[in-house]
Design goal:
Length: 459
């Protein structure tokens, strides 16, 4: 079911959001019996604390929800999404206490709290419904919530049902829903079409590797999104240990994120031309798997020495990025679950990104703060360029030593793009449940990019 606000109703239960510093003033507005009830229950307006107030017949008359202090709120996001899942069944409306970005964040959190991945189990009981608060763009928030839900669904689906062919089906479905064009190049056709790295990485899989190409819009600046679509990563002949392979269904998290973002852009009908490129492969082991110390020639003509078959994501992205450059877009953004080094550097909650443009970095940083989608700029550090040059070929796909792994991967990708370029090295997984974010697949950076697009593309 789509994530959506409830229709307005006279029976909606009012919800009052109370800052800890405003508790006394809020209590003064209550009736004497309700004030006595609040004091007896020990409600202090702590962050995420809530209390239902009964009417004369014992039904819920209103709800008080604590918004805590600014210091407490700064230690997380979507705090009130946790309350949405705890309230008794019914329809609620936010009656007071929030405005501006706080109100928008809470409304989005309420919708996202209703997300459930129930493809393989009995559907969960729906959470309490929320009437769209006055003063927000309800349609936009619903679109964003459902774009995020698409990303989560794609990541959460195991590779048995989300291999390269299934990812293609998902992309085609999205394109059909939004009157977009889609083209696919698959199997050995990738060789004749000039995508040797995509073919090489995916050729050992039971499902053919493929390149998915979606186009939408006929006017405005061109934005090209490139998403890593490695539907499962065994590591290839440099096979991962079991513990490292356990979450590899999420290695197509970059593709899932750009598809979710593309859904937002198309549904909002933004004034731009959109292209989405997804190299969809499975990095498997078979007699024809590529090997360590192979030297491969990319679509761009740069040669790559393979020093670890588990550094395959940058290979498939290299060919896709080369294609992205060929029609001279105004901006290319790649998203990929590319390196463990990024997760070690900033943890699972922050989407690190790379750009040579200070203006782009500022636009992204400001937008991320406004929409509670944390990002952090990491550097294209020029002195590390020599680390990706092996001597025997133009590039090394896995520099030895393990130093600056996310930066060297980003520098590798930059070699294949001449257009204005932003790269995100995302994790794509929520390791433990948090407000509005159940354990499992999660979008990272997409809402920040969406909010930043006016500044990034002057639209």
């Amino acid at each position: 079911m789509p994530l959506a606000f409830a229709a307005p109703t006279e029976d909606a239960i009012p919800v009052h959001i109370i800052d800890a510093d405003g508790l006394d003033a809020a209590l003064d507005r209550l009736s004497a019996p309700h004030r006595a009830w609040v004091e007896m229950q020990g409600f202090q307006a702590g962050l995420g604390q809530y209390l239902t107030l009964p009417d004369a017949e014992g039904r819920i008359a209103q709800v008080l929800v604590g918004f805590g202090t600014a210091a407490k709120r700064a230690r997380g996001r979507f705090h009130l999404g946790a309350v949405a899942g705890k309230l008794p069944d019914g329809t609620y409306q936010i009656a007071s206490g929030l405005a501006g970005s706080d109100l928008e964040e809470t409304a989005l959190a309420w919708l996202l709290a209703g997300y459930n991945f129930d493809r393989y189990r009995k559907p969960a009981t729906p959470i309490a419904a929320l009437v769209a608060p006055a003063g927000i763009d309800a349609v936009r928030i619903e679109i964003i919530a459902n774009g995020e839900a698409l990303t989560r669904d794609l990541i959460n689906t195991p590779t048995s049902d989300m291999g390269p062919a299934d990812l293609e089906d998902a992309a085609r479905s999205l394109a059909t829903e939004n009157d977009a064009d889609v083209n696919t190049i698959a199997g050995d056709d990738l060789i004749s079409a000039g995508f040797p790295l995509i073919h090489t990485v995916g050729r050992a899989s039971a499902q053919d590797p493929r390149l998915l190409d979606i186009r939408w819009g006929d006017s405005g600046p061109q934005l090209t999104l490139v998403g890593k679509g490695v539907c499962f990563d065994t590591g290839g002949l440099n096979i991962k240990p079991g513990a490292s392979m356990g979450l590899m269904k999420k290695d197509m998290g970059g593709a899932a994120t750009v598809l979710g973002l593309a859904q937002m852009i198309m549904a909002l009908k933004l004034p731009l031309r959109l292209r989405v490129l997804i190299p969809a492969v499975e990095n498997s082991i078979d007699g024809n798997a590529f090997r360590p110390q192979d030297i491969l020639t990319s679509r761009k003509g740069l040669t790559v020495e393979i020093n670890n078959t588990d550094a395959e994501g940058r290979l498939v992205l290299a060919d896709a990025l080369t294609l992205s450059d060929e029609d001279e877009p105004d901006l290319v953004i790649s998203m990929a679950t590319l390196t463990g080094a990024a997760r070690v550097a900033v943890g699972p909650d922050i989407a690190p990104f790379y750009t040579d443009s200070d203006a782009h970095a500022a636009a992204l940083t400001q937008a991320a703060l406004a929409v509670a989608d944390p990002v952090w700029r990491l550097p294209f550090h020029e002195p590390y360029e020599t680390m990706i040059e092996p001597g025997i070929a133009d590039l090394d796909n896995a520099p030895k030593g393990g130093m600056a792994g996310s930066i060297t991967a980003a520098l590798f990708l930059r070699r294949f793009v001449e257009s204005p370029y932003i790269h995100f090295d995302v994790y794509g997984w929520q390791p433990s449940a948090a407000p509005a974010r159940p354990k499992g697949g999660v979008g990272m950076g997409a809402r920040a990019v969406l909010a930043a697009l006016p500044g990034l593309l002057n639209i």
